[in-house]
Amino acid sequence: MKKTLYLFALAGLFTFASCESTESRTEETEQNIEEGSEEMEDEAEQTAEDIEEGGEEAAGEIRD
Q1: What span, in angstroms and rounded, lies between the C-alpha atoms of 28 and 45?
Q2: Taking CA 24 as the corner, what is the angle to CA 10 and CA 40, rounded to the nearest 5 degrees?
Q3: How many helices, marked H, and strands, marked E, lie in the chain?
Q4: What is the rounded distance in angstroms from the CA atom of residue 5 to the CA atom of residue 39?
Q5: Distances in Å between the alpha carbon of 17 and those of 20, 23, 31, 62?
Q6: Separation CA 31–CA 6 (nearest Å)
Q7: Secondary-structure percent of the chain, ordered helix, strand, coil, rounded to 5
Q8: What single DSSP character describes residue 53?
Q9: Residuewise pLDDT in 10s, the chain (64 residues)
Q10: Which pTM does this prediction carry?
Q11: 20-52 as b/e, with b when 16 or more CB fall inside 10 Å?
């Protein structure tokens, strides 16, 4: 009986450790996704500014 209880306790600890590991990986993945989307947003804003500046330059050349 004691061995059975010991095995159940050990299995419970292993399961808990496994869940904790998965949770930390999930949080890390979420953080990486958030950082990646922030970088993409910054790049998109920069590209939009570059396009706008290029359009203004082209319009200035057409007027001249």
Answers
A1: 26
A2: 160
A3: 1, 0
A4: 51
A5: 5, 10, 21, 67
A6: 38
A7: 95, 0, 5
A8: H
A9: 678 877 778 787 777 766 666 677 788 888 888 998 899 999 999 999 999 988 887 777 777 6
A10: 0.51
A11: eeeeeeeeeeeeeeeeeeeeeeeeeeeeeeeee
Neighbours of 9 (CB within 10 A): 10
Radius of gyration of the chain (CA): 28
